[in-house]
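Reading a protein record of the kind used here takes only a little practice. An example makes this concrete, so a full record is given next.
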Amino acid sequence: MDEIDPDRNDRRFDIGTLIEERDPDRYRLHKQYLNEMMVRVLQTIGYDVGFRTGRGQYLVDRDGNSYLDLLSGWGVFAIGRNHPVLREALGRVLASDLPNLVQMDVSLLAGLLAERLLGFAPWLDKVFFANSGTEAVEAAIKLARGATGRPGIVYCSHAFHGLTYGALSLNGDPIFKDGFGPLLPGCVEIPFDDLAALERVLSGRDIAAFVVEPIQGKGVNIPGDDYLRGAAELCRKHGTLLVADEIQTGVGRTGRFLAVEHWGVEPDMVLLAKALSGGHVPVGAVLTRKWIFEKVFDRMDRAVVHGSTFAKNDLAMAAGLATLEVIETEGLLDQAARHGARLVAAFEAMAARYELVHAVRGKGLMIGIEFGPPRSLALKASWNLLETVNAGLFCQLVTIPLFKDHKILIQVAGHANRTLKLLPALVITDADCDRIEKAFDIVIAESHKVPGAVWSLGKTLADHALKARRAS
């Protein structure tokens, strides 16, 4: 029998001390126990700086350097990191000894969050809570099939809806699907922004739902002005539900609470997550019409026909309520629209000056800068070399100096994509916009100099890519 440590009961678990003592082991732990390939990526491109703190739109690394974060956790931190209103709300919940997740009861905070969310989408009536965006997509698939009695789900090329099996079946990028089949049957891919293709597939009247991002995250692809309205009309005509995946575009990202508001569309379901969480406690939500909800939850013995153990937990619900409060009281929708319009105008001016910048797309603070083949011969040769090795590799020649030299964190908008995507916190300032515009102008100008430091970096990245390809 082991001896009892007499000091054991006097020890207190101190998470702060644990973090401080073990932070030097961060990358080793991930290599050994988690995803070694992700660590290799970070080390290859020089992003292994070890971020230690985050406040608002800024990150601070282990050496005390401050970075402007234009990823915001893929759009999670709409109100910035560690917002005091959110922290206070979570602290009050923890201090209140609430009877969390009783299961044989209902949560007040869940009811309050549902009420408030539906105030932003008054044509919808019911809310189903989940733990994440992909869970919200899974729930929408089940609700659509259960309500319509149809098997088919339509999605778009280049779409991203999550990585669990139902959501994965709706992804328009093969890299996420390869090796994981067979996937969910009855899922049909069509081109984005193509009403004729949508009508062809809906005309068979076996499609339960058309699931679409109002603005596609993988590339920041914005539809034509008539697309979403036309899609809504076609869905009504053929008895198909229109499901708007607003997991990245919703909760103020585009300068409206929902991106569909830009086109005056009222979907049958709206899916939310990411920013609704405030960044501390994951939460997903499906906002839906009453008749759809009640087709599934139609009898007392079916009250739990779909659910999730940790959905509606008090911390998640409080986080959602606090996030909505901050967005409204701080006027973040108007701020996102104003700063977004300013940045888009600045990038469009760069597109007119620099031949490698082919297009600028965006609404609010969801902005894409697309790079493409140059016209001049010297640039064209260097560009073709990189693109032959790895499609989209040029974009890393912009992201890396932005990170190293200007302390701005940004990444490409998808695998093998030529678009950089900005998803900053909605709390960014005019001074932040000044910093973004100046840094991008400097780095893009440098990328037009051949030979130069940027293209030397490109050769190094190309060599790494070739070595990795040979090794695999």
About this structure: The domain at 26-79+332-471 is CATH 3.90.1150.10 (Aspartate Aminotransferase, domain 1).
